[in-house]
């Protein structure tokens, strides 16, 4: 008897592996010695396993399905819900603009101990937002090579994940550095 792709001996009452009840797709088969392979000595080297494989081949050739034919209908809605939630989250996280960028400002990102971009040209009165997307804290300091200018226009701590906005209101060239990481430097040119 073949039950839902499971092989069982003739007369067995084993059923569906999921419900343990007889399946609707039960097919009766007779097991004969012709279906069981033997070696040259007449022995069955793999015993019952080869007999079951031969029985499975016969069942498949007569139209039986080789694997369990049941599907779990509750898994499909769950899959589609998971896909929908993933798409919604991806769409929400795609909007990473800041309020400075939305109001005509510029965003400078800090990643990998570097400013991106390393040089910037803006008009007087422009707000520039510095976002610390790095894995360590930084400072936002008007200066060069980790040292602040004599009278810095700004000198702020910039923890991981935080942002600071600076308004450049007068024309000139301004150096920006990090006092913690002296190799982090950038230039802002204000026109």
Report what the structure shows.
This protein is α+β, with helices and mostly antiparallel strands and 191 residues long. It folds into two domains: 2-61, no CATH class; 100-190, Cupredoxins -  blue copper proteins (Immunoglobulin-like, Sandwich), CATH 2.60.40. 19% of the residues lie in helices and 28% in strands. The protein has three helices and twelve strands; from the N terminus they run ββαααββββββββββ. The protein has helices at 48-61, 75-93, 99-102; strands at 2-3, 6-7, 106-110, 115-116, 119-122, 126-132, 138-144, 147-148, 155-158, 163-168, 172-177, 185-190. Strands 5, 7, 8, 9, 11 and 12 form a six-stranded mixed sheet that branches. Strands 4-3-6-10 form a four-stranded mixed sheet, with no helix packed on it. A two-stranded antiparallel ribbon has the order 1-2. It is elongated. Mean pLDDT is 72; it is low at 1-15, 24-34 and 94-102.
CATH topology term of the largest domain: Immunoglobulin-like
Determine the N-to-C terminus distance. Answer: 87 Å
CATH architecture of the largest domain: Sandwich
Integer count of domains:
2
- SS-based class: alpha+beta
CATH class of the largest domain, anyone?
Answer: Mainly Beta
Task: Write out key terms for the chains shown.
alpha+beta, Immunoglobulin-like, disordered N terminus, 191 residues, four-stranded mixed β-sheet, 2 domains, single chain, 3 helices
Quick summary of this structure?
19% of the residues lie in helices and 28% in strands. It contains three helices and twelve strands.
